[in-house]
Predict the 3D structure of the following.
Amino acid sequence: QKEVEQDPGPLSVPEGAIVSLNCTYSNSAFQYFMWYRQYSRKGPELLMYTYSSGNKEDGRFTAQVDKSSKYISLFIRDSQPSDSATYLCAMGDPTNTGNQFYFGTGTSLTVIP
Amino acid sequence: NAGVTQTPKFQVLKTGQSMTLQCAQDMNHEYMSWYRQDPGMGLRLIHYSVGAGITDQGEVPNGYNVSRSTTEDFPLRLLSAAPSQTSVYFCASSRWGATNGYTFGSGTRLTVV
């Protein structure tokens, strides 16, 4: 079983829709949770970061962490064509001495004008 | 502030050839790592370094060597290229103990024929 599971999609939505992206994980030691956005032929960029459980909002983006279910989500409101990208979740364990973060395989999103 | 710089951006190698992928960062980050990204496989850790003179293996180290003589540079060497090493390679860095993930380079797209 992979440490982090993410539905690869692809996901296609009309402009203005609410998008929900999700990841599940197996390691209960994970405390740091991130979402990266990766445009085609570019490197991943950090989009959202949360620590432990709860919600975090930044503009049109909301990240949620449910540690009891080992489930994290990213919501995009009023989606725009510029949101078309691959979204990767990532997680970290504070006890990991290698400073390693674990990534999902990414979900490809297309927002249609 | 350049961040993480990778060269070259594209490379075609013949089977059996060797080459070095370059990575440099100007953020004084202690931690640096190399990932490969393949369709359906996500980001897989090849090697990482927690400081100058210290390196360790990740998930898929076979066929690759690294060294870290300075804080800024972390080159990745392919010893004898194989078609299975056709991939997109990303270098990433962070402060040691950072909880909010990595800064990624823009990637090197490698094809081995």
